Amino acid sequence: MRLFILAIILCASSCDTLSTECTTELRAEVYNHARDRKAILFGVSGNATVADSWHVLVAKPGHTLDNNDKGNVFIADSDHGKA
Q1: 43-74 burial, b if ≥16 CB within 10 A, otherwise e?
Q2: For residue 28, which of 62, 55, 66 has the smallest C-alpha distance?
Q3: Where are the alpha helices (DSSP H) in the chain?
Q4: What is the secondary structure of 52-69 as a DSSP string?
Q5: What is the pLDDT of residue 67?
Q6: Is it the case that residue 10 has pLDDT exceeding 60?
Q7: Rounded to an integer, what distance in angstroms lies between the CA atom of residue 46 and that of residue 25?
């Protein structure tokens, strides 16, 4: 019984170390004519349960992209190879 409990504890504690975080890769930034907004094209790499995806985000010029950003204009993925 102790071995079983130890195995569960080890498995539960290793879940955080085994998961991989999705990373964001900037592809392009394009400003509008007034330069008060910009469109940001970026890719988000997936992992075992999430496919890679492309996002377009419209933001203020000072916005810097981070791993938590999501597209607010366009999001597309390959539907795990079906598209």
Answers
A1: ebebeeeebebebbbeeeeeeeeeeebebeee
A2: 55
A3: 2-18
A4: -EEEEEEE-TT----TT-
A5: 85
A6: no
A7: 12
Q: Tokens 């996002």 identify what position?
A: 55
Which residue is it, tokens 């409990």?
5
Residues 55 and 74 sit within 8 Å (Cβ to Cβ): yes
Give percent of the chain above pLDDT 90: 40
Among 76, 74, 57, 73, smallest CA distance to 65 is for 57
Tokens of 53: 């995806």
Distances (CA, A) of 13 to 22, 47, 51: 20, 20, 25
